[in-house]
Amino acid sequence: MHADSPASRSPGPSPRSGPTGDPDRTDGPARVTVFTNVRPYGAERPVDLTVVDGVITADPAPHGAQVVDCEGRIALPTLVDAHIHPDKTAWGEPWVSRDPASTIAEYTAEDVKLHHALRTPLKERAERLMGHAVARGTRAMRAHVDVAPAYGLAGVEGVGSARGSLRHALDVEIVAFPQHGVIRTRGTEELLEEAARTGAVDRVGGIDPIGFDGALDEQLDIVFGIADRHGVGVDIHLHERAATGLESLRAIIDRTRALSLRGKVTVSHVFCVPGLPERELDRLAADLADAGISLTTVAPSSDLVLPIGRLREHGVTVGLGSDGVRDSWSPFGNADMLHRSHLLARVQDARLDEELEAAFRSGADGGARLLGLPEVDLGPGSPADFLLVRGECLPQVVVDLPHREMVVRGGRIVARDGELVGR
Description:
By secondary structure, the protein is an alpha/beta fold. It is about 35% helix and about 20% strand.
């Protein structure tokens, strides 16, 4: 399905499994809610959205359905954070003054210092940030969680616990991320293996096989070997640029093909791709699409953001993410994916309505494809996952970032006025 075109759907709710439906209902009458006076995508005339067991339907609402008057607010699909680090956050904690750092090794040392300095348990900090993301309109995220001898699997356990607490409102994939290196930090390989073997994570990660670990083949053989043995996916941080990054990326493509991991591998950041000559970019994009490898960007700057439109033309899935949120790497970040779509539009120098809308789609649809979730188009058969704001139209919302007045997940109201409700 193309993200910018309405899907061809049957008029009634289709059977679904998983968190986009009603995970608590096993039998009995259907759960029906009618959201009245809604303007999907800023439509001029309000309509009613009838939701049956978490799915929008074109059928008339039965007598006795719950009614929620949305008072002409705009409804937009909730978004997906394709790359975030909730285990490291100091969100909601007293202000932290950061020491100078410029290399990955220096930043990881700062991570350890902050980890020991924060008094609030990791699970509470992660849940606080993840809940905040929900209240700003996030329906799913891929959480990269540090796995290293300095922490053991504490981060995986903490974020896993937070995931359980928020399962009614948020889908979460967990990546065991070797921030300290797979090879350069002894004991990390065993922790990655344990996390994957026990089912605690959905993916295993890697980081700059040449530039940081200094062992391209050894690191990738370990990471891909764990993924292959335990049936998990892969998501590798690749900050390497120019020829070094392309060498690593080609090695990732080769292993994905060799192990038949199509659709299970993501490369994050991929700073070697922006600025490639057009022909080289097209060849690389064709290879990525053929191998079923997806990419993520956090839109850090105009020279490092991925060429999303061109990649998608070749069939490459590209997700958008928050990255770190108020951690030792940066005091910035807010886990607000509508704001991240705004930042993407700015670094892309978006000016036209269709460019602003495309930035929103990157935050909503790109991440949904990445996590294998159904896309939301607010039509019959669509998951009832949307946020409500006051405004004129979608491009204006992307620019002005109005207050999220309501967030709905699977037809249930999960947040109002920036606060979680209905746990």
